[in-house]
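Task card 7
Instruction: Convert sequence to structure tokens.
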Amino acid sequence: MNDPVGRIRRRLGELGADAALLTNLAHIRWSTGFTGSNGVALVDGTRVVFVTDPRYAEQARLECPDNEVVVTSGSFPEALRANSSPYGRIVLDALSLTVAQYRELARQFHESDLLIEAGWLDVEVARKQRSEIGRIAAAQALTDDVFTRLLEYLRPGVTERQVAAEIVYLHLQAGADRMSFEPIVASGPNGAFPHGRPGSRVLRDCEPVVIDMGCYLDGYASDMTRTVHIGPATNEFAETYKVVLEAQQLAIGIARSGLRADELDGVARAFLVDAGLGDYFVHSLGHGLGLDVHEWPRIGRNSEYVLPDSCVVTIEPGVYLPGKWGIRIEDIVVLSPEGCRNLTGSSSALLELDG
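Output:
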């Protein structure tokens, strides 16, 4: 079943619920088409009621032609209550519901009928349709092109912050909606921080640079990390890079739907442990990607769930040596029962740039 609303209704039957209240904006866009920043959607067996504020009145009517659009300057739950039929159980996602929203809903509906289920829609959203995969691939192609153009800018003397600004400029110039996260540019010892923020440190000859970047295009995200070296790499760095790359390629080689996420993480992690680098791989192997740059599933050592078909995930092992440097290599792949297809076009081979 390709229709998102139909898939939500199928989940309602499985959960024994009569309606679903969506508060996650990515889930709202997935099911209604609304691209604004404020709204909720109530889905039952026959209707979809979308509530937003007056700023988005015309936008909601244009983007959600199949929904009943309610515009209010007041409380969303109160507007829902006034424009919906009596319900039994209403399912809500604990991961996107604030305490304030829950309290207001409990005032408007029977609290005993509010079914709180963390991530109840995650698997359905993770099963990407062909059109969604095409949009992710287009976003990634844009980021690949930016990376190629960025290589000419990477030279000793420019700061991490200047490189980050160039990444943003090149993405927006190429037509990206916006960045999917603040770019990471971490040179030399700053690369040992997995999520190091770009600062005033200048790139230097004979040092590596970790670059993690992505954008949104037509609502869907890209995400890519490459570690390049300014000038010739030392033997230690080159050998460590080779190990990280082999760990990534091993994981990509076995990645498929039907595999447990912790088993996929375990293949890369075991390889790094055997190489004596396990203590320096401090994060999960990857995560889902789509309308959110970080969405379910998480591919980690404690992720005991099966990866669904047509799911798009990142594969990004990393090694971080405190006080020295870091290495991370990240591609995005789409899973099928037969294996995976890599949507990242940039080479993952070690690049040693002229200093």
